[in-house]
Amino acid sequence: MILIIDFGSQYNQLIARRVREFHVYCQIELPGISAEEVKALKPEGIILSGGPASIYEKNSPKADRGIFDLGIPVLGICYGMQFMVAALGGTVQRVGKREYGFAELEIKKSEGFFEGVKKKSSCWMSHGDSITKLPAGFKTTASTANTKFAAAAYARKKLFGVQYHPEVVHTQMGKKMLRNFLYNVCGCKRSWTMKSFAKQSIENIREQVGDKKAILGLSGGVDSSVAAVLIHNSIGKKLTCIFVDNGLLRKNEAEKLKITLKRHLHLNIRFVNARTQFLKALAGVTDPEKKRKIIGRIFIQVFEAQARKIREVDFLAQGTLYPDVIESVSVFGGPTSVIKSHHNVGGLPKKMKLKLIEPLKYLFKDEVRLLGKELGLPEDLIWRQPFPGPGLAIRIIGEITPRRLNILRNVDDLLLEEIKNAGYYKKLWQSFGVLLPIKSVGVMGDQRTYENIVAIRAVTSKDAMTADWARLPHKFLGQISNRIINEVKGVNRVVYDISSKPPSTIEWE
Ligand code: XMP
């Protein structure tokens, strides 16, 4: 295992990704972790991440300097290197101009950390402070025109520092260096695979739960489905999944899920029909935040009522992913402004007093998909595009009525069929229809129509934080529009949303 100490770098997740790509497990911890706690985790190596602070600022994050005496190899990156240097008696200063972007890296010798690395290659720099004196025992191992100590090492103690970022693709030989650190310096083995992860998790969950019971809120999305199957494989029928049909789902969604998860994968699922409850509470509501709050509140009511029926439950299982965990613990992760009150099955209240099982909490989305594959989940479930907790309610602008839900369901069904047939489904982050609250005039078979407008939204994205509208071919868009207007009763106009995020968001509400 590799321990990454998070000094607040924007590239933290990238470091973790890189380590895992080499089939080595890694975990991110905050700088507050003590040397004793580090020792107890038994990492084979420690990576100190970069960060936006300056080492001499009063509140800059600091790790326990005792970690350098544990005999565990350390790689300090950017701020991480500066922290190591300052902690061990060197000096770091703000000198000259800050260095940002590409620089030519010249290494002294192609060995150890630099084994197989070219004498000259480009690297990616992003720092304001520079090291002006190395601590005793350290030697310079690479330089750039601007930075004398671009890399340094205390080889005998296995302490390494790089001022540039080996984890970003712009550092030409970065992967090779990280690989050298993991395999040659730390002696890590390629043991992190989804097969080994699944096996280990199944054992851990069995041990944690014992003869007790667990519940899980199943949404039908990838994360909660994979978590459910993993836990089911571990504790079988002691896990009860609760699927709440809020009446805001896509066409035949609950039925499809019944077939895959209940009939094929034998999960113990309670399907709760709470459609009337949700739709009644949403009647006449048009404000997006009000809709979201109502849906969140009723979901919790329904879920709690169901959970009470299953007696003596001790555990609540959730499909929380690593990016959610990292974001909520990040050193500089202060409260951000509320843009939308997100609702999902993960947000169940603390007052339920249940212990948590979060088996995916160290995985990234694509790792969850691999795990799903390993566990035998069907392809169409694994590759599902994300669907928001509040469902179609936030895709129907204005009032939600059974008729309007029906129109959007038919649009959505047809759109996804076209997107899948044309081979775009996996390439797009999301693709869906939005029902607008205005009508427009049209002409059909010599008759005047006055009907609804539908907007098509299709975006590409890596993580939903930013997104771009998909440049779908005009001909294809024309075909979709044609089919919707001809086949979905109540729609006479289709428009295509060409806004990116930011400044827009993916969903309309
Ligand atoms: P926005 O609209 O904020 O959406 O750009 C970003 C991503 O989050 C999804 N989304 C939600 N997911 N509960 C969820 O589980 C929610 O309340 C919710 N609102 C938006 C959205 O579909 C997109 O993938």
Subunit organisation of the chains? single chain
CATH fold topology of the largest domain: Rossmann fold
Task: Output the radius of gyration.
Answer: 27 Å
Q: Look at the structure and give the CATH class of the largest domain.
A: Alpha Beta
Q: What is the total number of structural domains?
A: 3
Which CATH architecture of the largest domain would you pick?
3-Layer(aba) Sandwich
Give an account of the 3D structure.
With 509 residues, this protein is an alpha/beta fold. The chain has three domains: 2-185, Rossmann fold (3-Layer(aba) Sandwich), CATH 3.40.50; 194-382, Rossmann fold (3-Layer(aba) Sandwich), CATH 3.40.50.620; 397-496, GMP Synthetase, Chain A, domain 3. It is 33% helix and 23% strand. It is built from 14 helices and 20 strands. It has helices spanning 12-21, 35-41, 79-87, 174-185, 194-209, 222-235, 253-264, 275-282, 288-309, 322-329, 365-374, 379-382, 402-421, 474-487; strands spanning 2-5, 26-29, 45-48, 74-77, 91-93, 99-107, 120-127, 130-133, 139-143, 151-154, 159-162, 213-218, 239-245, 269-273, 313-317, 355-357, 430-444, 447-460, 468-469, 491-496. The strands form four sheets. A nine-stranded mixed β-sheet has the order 2-1-3-4-11-10-9-6-7, with helices on both faces. It has a five-stranded parallel β-sheet with strand order 14-13-12-15-16, with helices on both faces. Strand 18 (447-460) and strand 19 form a beta hairpin. Helix 5 (194-209) crosses helix 11 (365-374), helix 6 packs across helix 11 and helix 8 runs antiparallel to helix 9. The two termini are 42 Å apart.
